[in-house]
Each structure stands twice: as C-alpha cells, then as structure tokens.
Amino acid sequence: MSQNIQSVRGMNDILPEEAEFWEVFEETVRSWLRSYGYRPIRLPIVEPTPLFSRAIGEVTDIVEKEMYSFTDSLNGEQLTLRPEGTAGCVRAVIQHKLAAQQPLRLYYVGQMFRHERPQKGRYRQFNQVGVESFGFTGPDIDAEQILMGARLWDDLGLEGIGLQLNTLGQPAERASHRAELIAYFEKHQELLDEDARRRLYTNPLRILDSKNPTMQEMITEAPQLMSHLGAESMAHFEGVQQVLRDTGIPYVINPRLVRGLDYYNLTVFEWVTDRLGAQGTVCAGGRYDGLVEQLGGKPTPACGFAMGVERLVALVRESGGAPETEGVDVYLVHQGEAASRLAPRVAENLRDRGIDVLFNCGGGSFKSQMKKADASGATFAVIIGDDEASVGEVTLKSLRAGEGVRNEQKRVGVDDVADEIMDSFLDLEEEA
Ligand code: HAM
Q1: Rounded distance, CA 408 to CA 429, Å?
Q2: Mean pLDDT of the chain, nearest integer
Q3: Which residues have CB under 6 Å of ligand 1?
Q4: Which end of the chain has fewer CB within 10 Å, C or N?
Q5: Is the pLDDT reported for residue 407 higher than 80?
Q6: Measured in whole angstroms, how far is the alpha carbon of residue 403 from the centre of its chain?
Q7: Whole-prediction pTM value?
C-alpha cells in the first residue's frame, strides 16, 4: 500500500473550525485598515532572489539560511518564496512609480515562507498582515502606525500586548557605534559563541539580539547606539514618544531591539505578549528610509510593520474574544420528484433576498434530512414534500424554539416564504 501524502512540515492546514476565527479576524482587520486610510495591494508570492538578499541583507538569518530559493527549471531564473512582504511591496512601488505623486499608505495580507525550526507560533508557511507607508518623513507616521497596533488589539479584545521601542539612528551614526562595538566584542572574544564570532565583522549589531545566556552580561555592558545619535535622530525619536505619551500608549525603550532585517533606520518597534510562549512577538516594524533608493527608486522615506496572523488568532482564541460563527438561516429539506425540482428555485429565491440557505444535497428520508437540519445550527427548516409542491407551498419550521424564535410550523406559499422568514428575524431583533 502506498503511504498517504502529508502536508510539508511547518506548513499547516487551517481547518474550518479554526478558519472561521481567521475570517472574523480578517473582517476586523480590514475595517481597521480602512479606518486609517490604508489601501490594499496584492503582490506575488515568488520574487527574484536578489530582491530579498539586497533588501533584507546578505548577513541575516533570513537570507543566510531561511529562504526557499530555487532555480526555475524552464528559464534558469533564481527565484524565492517571499519570506516577508516589505521587499516585494517596495519593488512594486518602484516598478509602478506609485509614490511619485503623493504619499502612500498600503497594506497586504498573505503567506510568507521561512525555513525555520517549527514550534508553537513559528511555522515555515505563515501569514502576515503588513502595512507600509511611503513619502512621509516625520515621526507622526511612525507614531500613527504604533497607535494602529494599540487600536487593533483593542478591537480584537486582546490584552497584555506590550510595546517595545528603539531607535537605530542613521547609517553614519550606526557606523561609528559599530566600530566601537567591534572593538568591545574583540576585547571579549572568549565569551562570544560561534554565531557571534561569525557576525563580529559583518553584522555586530545583531549580536546584541543574542539569547545565549552566557553572553547576556557582556551584552548588557556593550556600548549603546543611543550615545552615538545626533540631534536630528534624537528629535525624531522624541517626536514618536511624544505622541505615545499624549495618547496614553505605554511603552518600554529596549536598546537591544535591533530587528532581524537590515533595512531599518530610526524608529523600530515590536508588540510582544508573554501569553504565547517563546514566540511572543505578534507585530513588528519600523522606519526604512533608505530601502527604496537602495532598490533603485527615487529616495523615498518609508515606514511599516507586519503582524503574524497565526500568533494573533491564537491569542484571540485563547482570550475567547471572537464570536462563534452562527449557523445558516435556513436548511432546505426536500423529498419526492416534484419537490426536488421545486427546491433549488425556492433556495435561490431565498438567497435573492439575502437569506443564507444550506441545501440538502444527496437525498435521504425526511427523518435523516431533519437530523441534518438540526445539526446544521440553522434557524429554520424549509421543508418541501410532494404534498407541498403540488399546491406551490412549503412548510416553514423553526429549529431554534426556546431561543426566542417562535416555536411553530406552518404552511406558506412559495412566494411568501422569504417574507415570513424576514418577519421572524425582525421579531427576533425586537425581542433582543
Ligand atoms: P518580522 O519581524 O520578520 O518583520 O515579521 C513580522 C511578524 O511576522 C513577526 O512579529 C511575527 O509575528 C510574524 N512571523 C515572523 N516569522 C514567523 C514564523 N516563522 N511563523 C509565524 N509567524 C512569524 C517583517 O517581516 C517586516 N517585513 C515587517 C515590516 C514591514 N517592517 C517594515 N514594514
């Protein structure tokens, strides 16, 4: 016997019971995005590999070891499944000259791919909602994007998500800090682990992000970037914080927050919870003023963030926040030749009026169909037998008696059934 084929490790099916939570989440997210004036953009999942190595940085975990890259066997192109959305979004903005006229606020939703070791909250295929703005220089947009996060957690009924904030300054400021940092780490060579040694001359800032317990003390004592920042960078950082203070958003400044992607400057931030175990960052981002130019566009300041949908949906479920999706309005039961010919028309008429209908497919006795109707969670059964069909009527039966729906069963003309159902729903609303 051949073995059943399983899904790829770290790439999960989202089954209906969970997917319904996703849909509620996505609806909340879309209206939240609209309320801040963000417009959708849909981007390819596959991009040329150099886009990511140039944007994210050659010496990053993502580019060094986590990308799903392959050669297109038909034309030899080097391609990569997107590990994140910012690079593709910037490519599209440049390619279509989207930011040429006026500033832009864009969002995208979709799958990302990273070959990480799977664990709770960390997957090889995962979903992000990402937000990117182009053409805004001041700290007001950074602050607005942080406020957006706070509002979304509120809209989703989530608590306990804390904001960590840092500034990475400008490249020249980082360069002078970098020199000091390398000198410091060189003095403590014996404490550096293999990863840190490898990064010492390529990406020493990332060493600050190490979780290795034996390096923590040495890292805490390391020279801080903040003392290399000039007045302009400090003013930008202060501008972001001012808005946060004015709007009452608590935050913690974390000088070790450096992010795993190289394109950032000035503001960086992460929203973190301790309710998800090790993978507690639900949303992260910051400013990346150099990236558009670096990828060949006109210099354009930019700022954005992305959140992990799996992690947020897990939080929503844990906090019991999202409503259960309700059953359909009507289950349509039909048996007999004339009845089964009438039934699809009745169902379509109901749908014309905005009533949701689960149509009994596959036949079965009245009794077994009624069982399915009960199990479906529908509010009403519309029952058509040849009896009813011969006189152009249906039987309307309420299935949720005792929950406010009138407990009755009655014969109704085919053309009146939609009105009857609508009236019952109106009654229900009045009672509620
Ligand atoms: P990131 O920090 O790499 O940033 O990812 C953003 C969020 O995606 C994380 O905070 C986490 O919630 C989620 N995430 C990342 N990797 C995984 C994974 N393997 N499994 C599940 N969830 C994951 C970026 O991707 C930037 N593009 C964000 C950005 C947009 N910066 C500016 N604009």
Answers
A1: 18
A2: 93
A3: 84-86, 114, 116, 122-123, 126, 128, 130, 132, 260-261, 281-286, 288, 304-308, 310-311
A4: N
A5: no
A6: 35
A7: 0.90
